Amino acid sequence: MQVLRVHSPKALFHEDMAMKGALSAQSAAAMIPDGARLMIGGFMAVGTPERLIDALVERGAKDLTVIANDTAMPGKGIGKLIDAGAVSKVIASHIGLNPVTQKKMIAGEIAVELVPQGSLIERIRAGGMGLGGVLTPTGLGTEVEAGKQIIEVEGKSFLLETPLRADFALVGAWQADHVGNLSYLLTAHNFNPIVALAADVVIAEPESIVPVGVIPPDSVKTPGVLVDHLLVRAPKPAQA
């Protein structure tokens, strides 16, 4: 006979606090100082850790450097940080569908470094793996080449793209277990497992938290050894 166990919110809170590096979103935001360099997972806000971003906006974070695929759109994902004036520099493959980023870039309020998408993810991977950089032909003969070293290998020219690292990686996951193993769902996978490799501190925001063993080993895309902190479950709104 299957036994269904129903946990009270208080019991869930205590269970969450027993997890690896358990933090509320507000405590996580308080750990991140103004001027920090952040890698943030997601692609047009899909797979982006929204509660972490909301907490940074609420805290009034300033002068952040954000390394991500894009800046999403106003009111969505990284776009909320842009709206709040929390970002001073963006390193991304494109700005997303975000006219606010465009206006601030033109006005000189935000510095934007555009990197070809494949080069961007490989620079992050290189930072995570301790490599000295990535050789790629992408960008040769274009503005991307400016100021970069060109290396010849077997008669072919390549740009040396230097590695990227961050102070914090903010990761959006589908599931986490109590020791920090993470799995991702469909396209929300995107940049998340790679940015988790390349930061001094990794904070994961899972949609659900399950006991160890529930996530099949083959589905673990970020092992818990890489994760420093897990966000506890979001508090449920009080009933009227």
State the main characteristics.
240 residues, 8-stranded mixed beta sheet
Rg over CA atoms, rounded to whole Å, is 19 Å
Please give the oligomerization state of what you see.
single chain
Overall average pLDDT: 91
Number of helices: 7
Largest beta-sheet details: 8 strands, mixed
Shape: globular
Poorly predicted runs: 1-14
Percent of residues in helices comes to: 10-25%
Main structural class: alpha/beta
Distance between the termini: 36 Å
Report the count of strand segments: 11
Order of helices and strands: HHEHEHEHEHEEEEEHEE
What is the strand content? 15-25%
Summarize the structure in words.
The chain is α/β, with parallel strands linked by helices. The chain has 7 helices and 11 strands. It has helices at 9-17, 25-31, 50-59, 78-83, 99-106, 117-129, 192-195; strands at 37-40, 64-67, 87-92, 111-114, 134-136, 150-153, 156-161, 166-177, 182-183, 199-210, 229-230. The strands form 2 sheets. Strands 1, 2, 3, 4, 8, 9, 10 and 11 form an 8-stranded mixed β-sheet that branches. It has a 3-stranded antiparallel β-sheet with strand order 5-7-6. α2 (25-31) packs across α3. The radius of gyration is 19 Å and the shape is globular. Mean pLDDT is 91; it is low at 1-14.
Strand and helix layout:
Elements: H1 9-17, H2 25-31, E1 37-40, H3 50-59, E2 64-67, H4 78-83, E3 87-92, H5 99-106, E4 111-114, H6 117-129, E5 134-136, E6 150-153, E7 156-161, E8 166-177, E9 182-183, H7 192-195, E10 199-210, E11 229-230
Helix pairs in contact: 2-3
